[in-house]
Amino acid sequence: MNDEFYMQLALDKAWQFQGLTYPNPAVGAVITHKGEIIAIEAHQKAGTSHAEVLALLAAYKTLSKTTLDFDLKDASKAHEFLLTLPQNYFSECSIYVTLEPCSHEGKTPSCASLLQQLSLKRIVIGVFDPIEGHDKGARTLENVTFGVLEQECNALLEPFQIWQKRAFVLFKLAQTTNGRIASDENDGYLSSQASLTHVHKLREACDMLLIGGNTVRVDKPTLDCRFTGGHAPDITIYTKEDNFDRQIPLFMVQDREVSTTNELSFLEKPSFVLVEGGEGMLNALKEKIDWLLIYQTPKLTTNTLTYNTTMNLQFLHQEKIDVDMMIWSKNFGH
User: What is the pTM of this model?
Assistant: First the structure.
């Protein structure tokens, strides 16, 4: 097995948390010990332990055959514990991480500083950290290899790079295998429960959920996070006419703002905007959409409702989520 194999495992793990770590980037890490994989982890939520730290903790548990009695996502406690280990504890270990370990001391301690003190055998990195002040952590490290699956690691990092400058716009859609967005039967949701839960996690993470006026008038949605128990996202309705029934569930969710607009200048502000809608919304935002997230369910249907539009996409990553296929795609014409 080679460096590319281990880095791909780190990438696959990181993609499971793409968007959920906002405003942090999605990052994955793998640790091997004498050629054996002993940890595959990823950063899961901003303000919590980074991928390298979670991987080191998982590696410790594997090597020591013991458990840890503190919250592994508590970055301060995790760093403190790892620094109590003998300096050569991980000396036969190599770590593969999709992004250069951070040099910045912020809500979490510096991962570069931690790795410097732990003296691993090898540190294999996909791409440099693009943020000035967070970068150059690798300069303090020894036995570093750079640029493994660099193109793939940059693709993983793209949302993070975009929302530094303007809104990263992610359009979510669900469809059958033959491209329909509704079933023959009136059986409720098209996607699996796992896909629905993932969408609700993204709603929790985003700055704003952007929808179209027809979605409000016809579907009368709630658009909350009931499947995760999280805080419902603020809603912006893109519409020419503000003629909505304010008594529908959408306007009744506590502790969130629902606003309307007929222009898109707010997309110039650094943020994470999730879009949910039909054909009209997809066509209206075609030039503004960065990525599409497609939940494809294994069904065929005679229902004619679909996204009747033309777009060129580049598939970036796909994985099974329950029975569905989740496909991260780039708007290639954007």
Answer: 0.94
